[in-house]
Design a protein that fits this description.
The protein is an alpha/beta fold. It has seven helices and eight strands; from the N terminus they run H-E-H-E-H-E-E-E-E-H-H-H-E-E-H.
């Protein structure tokens, strides 16, 4: 669906991150995923700087009837992170990792790739069972189960997931764990 430039400009102004349109600097790189055979062209790309940007992007897509694609770390071999004429929510700028060495947990943003997680956890003598390729995104790997070098001893990546903050298709932020929104966490 065509959205007038003024509406798109107003949307860009509420974001802390960036909004990219075709032919703008950064658009080509942002629409690229690891699988080079994927050559899709989103109508808009929102490079999210935080949760508020994700919520705004989902709300904008709903209001203007855009299909949504979501890019985490960008490894996505199937290429579903990018779609023609969609609003692509690019989470790759959200790549912070905060390790709590006492609790032996890590808070990981959705754009983190495996080598970034490993770098932060290894500083504390910790590790998480994650995949084999260091450029794989943690979010997608976890949602797919996640098999890696230490999985035989410590289970799949998803087996080690304690909780997740999720922006739903309705644009609501919810916390999912064994005790909250259990159906979503499952």
């Amino acid at each position: 669906m065509a959205v007038i430039d003024e509406t798109v400009t107003e949307f860009a102004e509420v974001l802390r991150g960036s909004l990219l349109r075709p032919n703008e600097d950064g658009y080509e790189e942002a629409r690229t995923v690891w699988n080079a055979t994927v050559d899709k062209h989103p109508a808009l790309i929102v490079q999210c700087a935080g949760t508020a940007d994700v919520i705004s992007a989902v709300a904008f897509a709903r209001e203007h009837e855009f299909p949504i694609s979501v890019k985490g770390g960008g490894h996505n071999i199937a290429g579903r992170a990018v779609a023609d004429d969609a609003l692509m929510i690019d989470l790759s700028p959200m790549n912070a990792v905060r390790v709590d060495p006492d609790a032996k947990t890590a808070r990981v943003e959705p754009g983190v790739v495996l080598n970034e997680l490993d770098h932060e956890t290894q500083a504390f003598g910790l590790a998480t069972p994650v995949g084999y390729n260091s450029t794989t995104g943690v979010a997608g790997l976890t949602l797919g189960g996640g098999w890696g070098w230490i999985s035989r001893k410590h289970g799949l990546t998803v087996d080690n997931l304690v909780s997740a903050d999720v922006v739903t298709a309705e644009g609501e932020l919810v916390h999912a764990s064994e005790d909250e929104n259990e159906d979503l966490f499952w």
